[in-house]
Amino acid sequence: MSSLLHIIQNDPEVPPGNLLDYLTIPYTVHHPYRGESLPEVGDIEALIVMGGAMGANDDVRYPFLTDLKILIRSIVAARIPYLGICLGGQLLAAALGAEVVSHRWEELGTLNVSLTAEGRADHLFKGVDEVFCTFQWHHDSFNIPVGGVLLATSAACRNQAFRVGDSAWGVQFHPEVTETIIREWYARSRFTSVRVEELIARFSNEKECYQKTALLLRDNFILNSGMGRL
Question: Which of 4, 178, 184, 189 has its CA 20 to 30 A from that of 80?
Fold first, then answer.
C-alpha cells in the first residue's frame, strides 16, 4: 500500500515521537540527514516536516535543506497539506521568503501558548484550548511570510504558529515529544543538564493537557488533509 502521509525527519535526535501513536493510515518516514532521497511531489498526499538542531538556512553544512525548501515551495504551490514543526515551520517560512532569525525569542521547556482570533477559527486548532500547554526547544524563530496568518503567540515568542493559504501550517513548538525524548534533550543541553529532574517534573504535571493538544493537532491535520481518521 502506498503511503498517504510522508514525514521528513531532519535529525536523528528529533523523531516523530507520539505523532505516530495509534496511526493507522499508511505513512513513510524519510531521513535525508543520512542520505535518503526526498519524496516526489506527485507521491505526497500530505507532508509533515520535523525539527532539527540545524538552522533553516544552514544549507552549506546540510545540503539537503536546499532540496527540502524547493520541495516545500512545490507542496505549497500544489496546495498539498503541509505541517512544519519547529525547524519544519522555519523551513516553511524560509521557503516562502520570510526571515528566520537566530537567537531571538528562545525558549526551552514546558510553556503556554495562546491562540489568536484567527487561530481559534482555524481547522488545525479545532478543539484546542485558547491557552494550551506546549513543549518548546528552539533558539531560532520565524517571521510570518507575506500573506500568512498568525494563529498562535506567547509572551516569550510572538510567532508561535501561522498558516499560508488553506493547507500549509508552521508551528514553533513541539507537539511530538515524549518524556523519553525531552529527557535526552535536557541531558544534552548545558542550559538544562543540571535541572533535568526538575524540568521533567514540570512537563509531567502538564502531560495530560500536552498530549491531548498534541493528538488533536495531529488528528485535525489528518482530517483536514482528507486522509480519513487515523
Answer: 178
